[in-house]
């Protein structure tokens, strides 16, 4: 933690080393392509630079003190097709935009979860972008539930508050969840462990389908779900929002509020949310006892956006309490039992079925994170540096006579890093060199133990290139990773419950893809990628009864890394009143790791 605080203090003022010369003014007008009328409120944003503005009543916009260089701008407004425009800002520039009216607004948006921001039409891998408005329209009980309606995306759920993303049939540790540029590291190996992200704090989601180990290393053989929360409001504005939500089945109620501002490049956001749900109903059981949950979350960021780049400090706190359904019933009446198989066993009353008090068994999940997200321009190059610290605390309570003492108590701490150097473009080639990885410590603080305590160190380096031609874009890259895991010993009853052992996994990955645009409305794409997944500590060394899954889990220390080869091909057709997407893939995974019943 001391190391992280030191890094953060160094990163925030680091921009001072970059020259403050070479700035330009970019301005222009945004109009309707059909009528020529101005479009008030239309937005112009540079996703990589984390800056944006809106047009005034006459459709005019302006950026002052914009550093010279190459930018990818997204221009959008409700009721129009968004466009993506390459801008070379070498001198003061007047750039006008025209938007076509459309009932479909999914064209031309920018993807940031790759080495360099690019239009969805230029990326050879299938990408789905979900905006905040779409998330709010989905009646859901958690953030993954809100995404499961997207094509190729589903979920595995063990209750209304617990869901995991599944992309093309792969989930758990085969899909990487990224939150503001950092891998979300919790206990994602477990069935009853969800994603610790406040749904109402998310501004945008990017779903990358298919092997993505080139950018994200181990685990991304199914795909990546990238959540983005820190989107600054336009310059010179302060915005406040209050959002309420309710659901009838389980009586869920929620409220979210935030306030954000941006003054002369200094921008900030603060939010808080609360959600509470009673037991859900089904037609067979009525109220399902102890399927209730509640959440209390808060967070925000402060940052500085200037012509040299940006530096943001992001914090969040996720706190969730979840009841765990046992389903035991009283033989005579068929009513759900409270505290079954204990001296306190009794049938639940109607009042207790309608209440929101969470009974044993239950679990409490806390996830804290601090992220320093930075991007600087150095001459014609661009440097991105993202360093984050996370702490995931998960406790399971199972004793009716001692409900305040956790049987299982996981404490996982992760320091992660991601650095990229985008070199100056040469002869049309865009090149990015990067390194990313993490250091983890997992400790058991409860009386019950399933997996050993361990230390993990992960590092990977990659090279990514992209070349755009008149109607096509070629991308490719190579990466090598090394992951080292040291499992700590634990004795029990005179024998070794967990042995002291170390494993190291080295893996190469890469991708090569092409997108082709035969017309303004048609995109064809193909991509081949190599991915991998190193075994987790639970797969290598688990040794204990897991009440949440009703099984005894036993690891195998000799497991090898999973490897995958995946081929994608697809086509997009985007017109003003209809949009059509078709894609197919072939995925071959070697050394696949799965649960197997023990014979003895």
What this model shows, in words?
The protein is mainly β and 600 residues long. The chain has one domain: Maltoporin, Chain A (Beta Barrel), CATH 2.40.170.20. 6% of the residues lie in helices and 54% in strands. The protein is built from six helices and 40 strands. Strands 18-19-20-23-24-27-28-29-30-31-32-35-36-39-40 form a 15-stranded antiparallel sheet. A hairpin with a 6-residue loop joins strand 29 and strand 30. About 2% of the residues have low confidence.
Structure keywords:
600 residues, mainly beta, Maltoporin, Chain A, 6 helices, 40 strands, 6% helix
Secondary-structure map:
Blueprint: H1 2-11, E1 23-32, E2 43-46, E3 51-54, E4 60-67, E5 69-76, E6 83-89, E7 93-94, E8 97-99, E9 110-111, E10 118-119, E11 127-131, H2 132-137, H3 143-147, E12 153-157, E13 163-167, E14 175-179, E15 182-183, E16 204-209, H4 213-216, E17 223-228, E18 237-246, E19 253-263, E20 266-277, E21 281-282, E22 286-287, E23 293-306, E24 309-323, E25 337-338, E26 346-347, H5 350-354, E27 362-378, E28 381-397, E29 408-422, E30 429-444, E31 454-468, E32 472-487, E33 490-492, E34 495-498, E35 501-519, E36 522-533, H6 537-541, E37 543-546, E38 551-554, E39 562-574, E40 579-590
Parallel strand pairs: 1-7, 1-8, 14-17
Antiparallel strand pairs: 1-4, 2-3, 2-5, 5-6, 9-10, 11-16, 12-13, 14-15, 16-17, 18-19, 19-20, 20-23, 21-22, 23-24, 24-27, 25-26, 27-28, 28-29, 29-30, 30-31, 31-32, 32-35, 33-34, 35-36, 36-39, 37-38, 39-40
């Amino acid at each position: 933690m001391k190391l992280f605080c030191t890094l953060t203090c160094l990163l925030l003022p680091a921009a001072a080393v970059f020259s403050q010369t070479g700035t330009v003014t970019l301005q222009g007008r945004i109009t309707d392509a059909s009528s020529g009328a101005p479009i008030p409120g239309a937005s112009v944003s540079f996703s990589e630079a984390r800056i944006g503005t809106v047009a005034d009543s006459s459709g005019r916009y302006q950026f002052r003190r914009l550093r010279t260089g190459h930018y990818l701008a997204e221009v959008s407004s409700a009721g129009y097709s968004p466009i993506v425009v390459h801008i070379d800002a070498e001198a003061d520039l007047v750039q006008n935009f025209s938007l076509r009216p459309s009932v479909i607004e999914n064209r031309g948006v920018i993807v940031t979860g790759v080495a360099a921001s690019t239009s969805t039409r230029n990326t050879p891998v299938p990408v789905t972008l979900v905006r905040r408005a779409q998330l709010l329209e989905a009646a859901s009980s958690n953030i993954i539930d809100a995404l499961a309606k997207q094509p190729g995306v589903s979920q595995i759920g063990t209750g209304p508050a617990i869901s995991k993303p599944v992309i093309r049939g792969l989930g758990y540790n085969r899909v990487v969840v990224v939150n503001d540029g950092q891998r979300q590291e919790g206990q994602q190996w477990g069935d009853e462990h969800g994603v610790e992200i406040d749904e109402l704090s998310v501004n945008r989601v990017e779903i990358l389908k298919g092997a993505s180990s080139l950018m994200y290393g181990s685990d991304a053989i199914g795909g990546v779900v990238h959540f983005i929360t820190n989107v600054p409001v336009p310059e010179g504005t302060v915005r406040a929002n209050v959002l309420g939500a309710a659901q009838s089945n389980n009586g869920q109620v929620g409220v979210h509020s935030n306030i954000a501002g941006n003054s002369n490049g200094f921008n900030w956001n603060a939010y808080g949310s609360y959600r509470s749900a009673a037991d859900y109903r089904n037609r067979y059981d009525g109220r399902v006892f102890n399927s209730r949950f509640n959440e209390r979350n808060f967070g925000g960021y402060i940052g500085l956006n200037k012509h040299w780049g940006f530096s943001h400090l992001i914090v969040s706190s996720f706190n969730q309490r979840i009841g765990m359904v046992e389903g035991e019933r009283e033989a005579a009446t068929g009513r759900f039992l409270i505290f079954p198989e204990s001296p306190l066993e009794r049938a639940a009353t109607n009042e207790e079925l309608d209440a929101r008090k969470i009974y044993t068994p239950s679990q409490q999940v806390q996830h804290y994170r601090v992220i320093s997200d930075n991007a600087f321009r150095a001459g014609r190059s661009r440097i991105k540096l993202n360093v984050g610290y996370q702490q995931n605390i998960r406790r399971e309570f199972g004793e009716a006579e001692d409900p305040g003492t956790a049987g299982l108590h996981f404490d996982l701490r992760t320091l992660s890093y991601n650095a990229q150097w985008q070199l100056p473009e040469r002869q049309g080639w865009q090149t990015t060199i990067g390194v990313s990885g993490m250091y983890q410590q997992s400790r058991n603080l409860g009386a019950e133990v399933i997996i050993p305590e361990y230390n993990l160190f992960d590092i990977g380096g990659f090279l990514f290139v992209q070349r755009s031609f008149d109607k096509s874009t070629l991308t490719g890259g190579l990466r090598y990773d090394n992951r080292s895991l040291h499992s700590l010993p634990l004795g029990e009853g005179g024998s070794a419950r967990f042995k002291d052992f170390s494993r190291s996994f080295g893996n190469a990955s890469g991708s090569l893809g092409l997108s082709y645009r035969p017309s303004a409305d048609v995109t064809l794409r193909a991509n081949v990628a190599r991915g991998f997944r190193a075994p987790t500590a639970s797969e290598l060394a688990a040794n204990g009864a897991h009440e949440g899954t009703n099984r005894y889990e036993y690891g195998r220390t000799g497991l090898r890394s999973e490897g995958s080869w995946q081929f994608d091909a697809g086509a997009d057709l985007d017109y003003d009143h209809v949009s059509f997407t078709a894609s197919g893939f072939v995925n071959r995974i070697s050394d696949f790791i799965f649960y197997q019943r023990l014979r003895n």
